[in-house]
Amino acid sequence: MITAIVFVKADVARIPEVAEQIAALDGVSEVYSVTGQIDLITLVRVSNHDDVAAVVADRLNKVPGVTATETHIAFRTYSKHDLESAFSIGLD
User: Fold this and answer.
1) Mind giving me the DSSP string for 9-69?
2) Quick one: which of 19, 27, 73, 84 could link to 55 by a disulfide (CB 3.0–4.6 Å)?
3) Per-residue pLDDT for the chain (92 aa), expressed as one digit of tens each?
4) What is the model's pTM?
């Protein structure tokens, strides 16, 4: 599984609509509205690098209201949440 973190700048008047459209894209697991120099942080989780390109370059960048993106590929996961789910066998 490849995780890409995408910083999105959007037309300020359209941030909620842009976030909803991005969240509906296949391969997008989460979208956060944030403070600071960027407007949205998007987590893309796909099986290969070509799929990252398909999600970000072919679809996300074309959402009306997206003005710029910056994509970061994650090397490793250190999150307790992700590690616990990776080793979970489904028992409560």
Assistant:
1) EE-GGGHHHHHHHHHTSTTEEEEEE-SSS-SEEEEEEESSHHHHHIIIIIIGGGSTTEEEE
2) 27
3) 899 999 999 999 999 999 999 999 999 999 999 999 999 999 999 999 999 999 999 999 999 999 999 999 999 888 666 655 655 555 55
4) 0.84
